[in-house]
Design goal:
Layout: H1 3-13, E1 18-21, H2 25-36, E2 41-44, H3 53-56, H4 71-82, H5 84-87, E3 95-96, E4 99-103, H6 106-121, E5 126-129, H7 131-137, E6 147-151, E7 155-156, H8 162-172, E8 176-178, E9 185-189, E10 192-199, E11 204-209, E12 212-214, H9 220-225, E13 234-243, E14 253-256, E15 262-265, E16 271-274, E17 280-282, E18 286-289, H10 292-305, E19 314-324, E20 331-334, E21 341-345, H11 350-365, H12 378-381
Parallel strand pairs: 1-2, 1-12, 2-8, 4-14, 12-21
Antiparallel strand pairs: 3-7, 4-6, 5-6, 9-10, 10-11, 13-16, 13-19, 14-15, 15-16, 17-18, 20-21
Helix pairs in contact: 2-8, 2-11, 4-11
Bound molecules: flavin-adenine dinucleotide (FAD).
């Protein structure tokens, strides 16, 4: 065995304090705060950091689309995104911009008011505006709107920068990052966990740790099954569209009360359009293909809201996989029946809330009382299996969520 091999052997076989499986925003943040608190942390990612949902999402940092009960978490996370220099180092071009959620029909107006009231109850400062007031803020809007909800805690980031930013911070904090290392099996040994990975040139990967955190996004269901825990995790295949660069057509983050649209214009002039329209995909195959009528439906809605988008040309579309539990609330906390095993994931608007959720879980793992309550995964174990979202559904999951 070479000196390097011996060092590697020692590194892998002296148990880490914690192994985090899954390097999206949830796993990376948890790993970062645990390492900064002095733990020896292994972060195990089967691809590269933040290349799944956390790297391909729309980057909207919003309260309008966040479930009402998650607003207190999202507000704290929003501040973290706007101040990455204080805790992450490198940033993700997080930009504060007011958010307007719009109603064009009586039903949407009803929904807008209910949603705004629910979020206000949880601390979001959301005001209702008449069309004239909304047009002063966003002159390019379709004046046919009936009402708008306005919130200054909104904005967006460039999600593709997330992996790079976390990589630097994690390395600086001393986290041992294992990329291109899928966890294939997890053994529970005497007092610790052993994560098995693929065969390398010298030996199969085996990473021992006294604690384990499962942070595998839509792949949490098979990952938790490795620990004998069965929690159904639904996969949403979200479509996103980016236009070519165009002159300024909007300066706010725009959405519709029914949740079927979200969009903003980046500094380079391109407009990113989303809203949870579904494509074809699942966790086995990944994102597969778009559904033409969902693409045109999403674009039509965007043009309806900002008529100047009629001139926009689509540069690219892509799909990403988002996870959801049976009750559409997160699972974050200790796994029942196991010692020192935790899960974090399935957070609605999870990019917005990610940094704060990871920080909270790290507080619990460190033995502190988390600043806000976690989301006990035990409630989901007895829940009936969630049916998979039909791949051809044109309906956004967001419209069903309060
Ligand atoms: C298209 C799209 C648009 C979205 N837009 C927004 C938005 O605008 N605003 C917002 O707030 N939220 C948005 N979201 C939601 C947000 O992106 C997610 O909630 C969040 O990124 C989830 O982070 P995560 O760490 O739980 O999961 P992920 O980022 O998916 O990370 C999980 C990681 O686990 C790894 N993994 C899985 N299995 C294994 C294994 N066996 N071994 C090792 N590693 C493994 C995966 O490779 C992956 O990197 C969007 C999601 C999508 C898909």
């Amino acid at each position: 065995m070479s000196v390097l091999d011996e060092t590697m052997h020692e590194t892998l076989h002296r148990p880490f304090d914690v192994a985090v499986v899954g390097g999206g925003v949830m796993g990376c943040t948890t790993a970062l705060f645990l390492a900064r608190a002095g733990m020896r942390v292994a972060l195990i990612e089967r691809n590269a950091l933040c290349r799944a949902a956390s790297g391909v999402n729309a980057g909207t940092l919003t309260l309008h689309m966040t479930r009402a009960a998650l607003v207190p978490y999202a507000m704290r996370a929003w501040k973290m995104w706007m101040n990455t220099d204080q805790w992450l180092g490198e940033g993700v071009l997080a930009t504060a911009a007011p958010g307007l959620s719009l109603a064009f029909t009586e039903n949407e107006r009803e929904l807008l008011r209910t949603r705004a009231a629910a979020r206000r109850e949880y601390g979001a400062e959301i005001d209702l505006l008449a069309p004239e007031a909304a047009l002063k803020i966003e002159p390019g809007l379709n004046p046919a709107m009936l009402e708008a909800a306005y919130c200054t805690t909104d904005g967006f980031a460039s999600a593709y920068l997330t992996g790079r930013a976390y990589h630097s911070a994690l390395r600086a904090a001393g986290v041992q990052i294992f990329e291109n290392t899928p966890a294939t099996r997890i053994e529970q040994l005497n007092g610790h966990y052993r994560v098995h990975g693929p065969q390398t040139a010298s030996a199969p990967v085996r990473i021992d740790a006294t604690r384990i955190v499962m942070a595998g996004g839509v792949w949490l269901e098979p990952l938790l099954a490795m620990l004998g825990i069965h929690i159904p995790v639904k996969t949403l295949t979200n479509q996103l569209i980016v236009t070519e660069r165009m002159p300024p057509v909007m300066r706010t983050v725009l959405s519709i009360a029914n949740g079927l649209l979200s969009m903003k214009q980046f500094a380079n002039g391109s407009v990113v359009i989303g809203g949870g329209w579904q494509g074809v995909g699942d966790r086995e195959r990944g994102p597969v293909e778009t559904i033409p009528q969902n693409l045109t439906g999403n674009l039509r809605l965007a043009q309806h809201v900002i008529p100047a988008l009629a001139k926009a040309r689509v540069a690219r579309i892509w799909l990403g996989l988002e996870s959801e539990t049976a009750d559409a609330m997160p699972m974050i906390g200790a796994l029942p029946g196991l010692d020192n095993a935790y899960v974090i994931g399935c957070v609605h608007s999870g990019y917005t809330s990610g940094p704060y959720m990871g920080k909270l879980l790290s507080q619990a793992i460190l033995g502190d009382t988390p600043e806000l309550p976690l989301f006990d995964p035990a409630r989901l174990i007895a829940a009936p299996a969630a049916s998979e979202t039909p791949a051809a559904s044109a309906i956004s999951h967001r419209e069903h969520t309060q």
